[in-house]
Write a structure and sequence with these properties.
Elements (H helix, E strand, L loop, with lengths): L2 E3 L3 H16 L10 E3 L2 E4 L3 E2 L2 E5 L3 H5 L6 H12 L4 E5 L10 E3 L2 E2 L1 H16 L3 E5 L9 H11 L14 H15 L16 E5 L13 H18 L4 E3 L27 H5 L7 E5 L1 H4 L5 H23 L3 E6 L3 E2 L2 E2 L2 H20 L4 E6 L27 H15 L6 H8 L18 H21 E3 L1
Parallel strand pairs: 5-6, 5-16, 6-9, 9-10, 10-11, 12-13, 13-16
Antiparallel strand pairs: 1-17, 2-3, 3-4, 7-8, 14-15
Length: 466
């Protein structure tokens, strides 16, 4: 049978296909600011959105040099081609060789324009951004650099954890928050606080506190800083603390699950309950956290760690949960091989999809880290840390990540309130649905049925069959 379109029908079909593809990939602000409805992230109209993401801390650094901006474009292009819709990256570089903030309140305009470019390109590629505001560790300055600045100004501070209690240091941090959040993008002309490309602000990368293992110091700091960020931002964007998920001494804390039973100075439940904190985060590095342990021990830890946090988040927080870092160490002469790494990816992503498809709180994640081949932009090899995934040269990892992105995207657009009502019904057994195998949810079946009816009617009205 030959199908011949009537005049104009081909153009309509092409436009519909292009528009449909663009709508399916909508992200990076196209759906408006991301909000929270219970344990779900939502966009305009209260429709759910799920996140398949990656970490690329280096984006601003590369973009600060116009000659290396091709790396940012290539990263977003490759990521969006695999359906990734979230990038977690640094909105800080405190002191050092390539500072965003060279001293308290003094900023390098070239670095800031690099961040401007990153935000503009993320929006162009349909990718949301989770912007982190400082580091617990010494890389790119972090809390110790803030303390050094205060000490150099004559204040009696010596320990990195003074960051959490010193009024001077806290004023430095607040000034940085204000400088970033109120920045007007030189590429788009939009203030960061008004830009829906920015999904959320992260107070700190992996806050820890040796000075107070109970978590009290970090707790008080988050309780002060999260509302402050909200005030400067005007409440437009979401805020998270940046925790790895380590438990403490507080109520509902499963501290026996911490790696080696060690305290890290944080409380998972209590800190995520703080005013101004909109969603919870955990990280997953079982091979590093349990260095020297067997593969079976690491697998058992992963299962217990994930289940515990999903349960705690649903039962005691009622907020969404993201795995904002997960990775498996690869390195010449040691670590896992790619087969083991890809198995780890499968296990993590299956856990995310299992929760998301049931309407649970674990609704996305971001692998550590996305890199490019050094042939794209010189200097990328210097950023290798053993966790890198180079999509263009690792077809199996790219396939795993791409399939997961498609499956999460198939859950987008559900009514969050209707999803909550369905969750109250008796749960049926879960089976991961592969594309082409059926098993659509009610929320997807009705729109698909209507679409099929529309296409059938369109063909009958606009085509001559002979």
């Amino acid at each position: 049978m030959t199908v011949r379109p009537r005049p104009g029908a081909a153009a309509i079909i092409i436009a519909a296909v292009v528009f449909g593809a663009a709508a399916a990939a909508a992200g990076g602000g196209d759906g408006g600011m991301v909000g929270v409805d219970g344990t779900q992230f939502v966009v305009e109209g209260g429709r759910t959105i799920y996140f398949s993401g990656f970490n690329a801390y280096w984006l601003m650094m590369m973009a600060s040099d116009p000659a290396r901006r091709a790396a940012v474009v290539a990263a977003f292009t490759q990521a969006s081609a695999r359906g990734l819709n979230l990038a977690r990256t640094w909105a800080f570089s405190d002191g050092g060789d390539q500072p965003l903030q060279s001293s308290p309140g003094v900023y390098d305009e070239a670095m800031f324009q690099g961040l401007d470019f990153v935000i503009a390109e993320a929006r162009r590629h349909g990718i949301y951004l989770l912007l982190c505001l400082t580091n617990n560790f010494d890389d790119f300055g972090g809390k110790r650099q803030y303390v050094r600045w205060a000490a150099d100004a004559g204040h009696n501070l010596t320990a990195g954890d003074d960051f959490f209690t010193s009024s001077v240091v806290k004023s430095y941090y607040k000034n940085h928050v204000k400088a970033v959040v109120t920045r007007v993008n030189t590429v788009t002309g939009v203030a960061y606080k008004d830009d829906p490309t920015i999904f959320a602000w992260e107070l700190m990368n992996e806050p820890r506190c040796d000075a107070d293992p109970t978590g009290g110091m970090v707790q008080a700091w988050v309780e002060e800083m999260a509302p402050y960020v909200k005030r400067v931002d005007g409440g437009r964007h979401l805020v998270t603390a940046g925790l790895e998920g380590f438990y403490g001494d507080g109520e509902h804390e499963s501290k026996e699950l911490n790696p080696w039973g060690i305290y890290y100075g944080t409380n998972y439940v209590a800190t995520h309950r703080a005013a101004g904190v909109d969603f919870a985060t955990i990280h997953l590095y079982p091979d590093v956290w349990l260095w020297g342990s067997t593969a079976d021990e690491q697998a058992a830890f992963f299962r217990n760690w994930t289940r515990s946090h999903v349960h705690a988040t649903a039962a005691f927080l009622g907020k969404p949960l993201l795995v904002t870092e997960y990775g498996k160490f690869l390195w010449k002469g040691g670590g896992a091989n790619k087969t083991q790494r890809n198995y780890f990816l499968d296990v993590v992503l299956d856990a995310i999809y299992a929760s998301a498809s049931r309407g649970g709180p674990l609704v996305g994640g971001a692998f550590w880290q996305l890199l490019l081949d050094d042939d794209v932009v010189a200097g990328m090899d210097d950023l290798r840390d053993g966790y890198e995934i180079i999509l263009a040269e690792d077809s199996r990892a790219a396939s795993i990540i791409g399939e997961h992105s498609e499956q999460l995207a198939s859950l987008n657009g559900q009514d969050a309130e209707a999803l909550r009502r369905r969750r109250r019904r008796p749960a049926s057994s879960h089976q991961k649905t592969r594309f082409g195998s059926g098993g659509d949810s009610d929320a997807l079946r009705l729109p698909r049925t209507l679409l099929i009816r529309f296409i059938s009617s369109f063909i009958q009205d606009n085509f001559v069959l002979f």
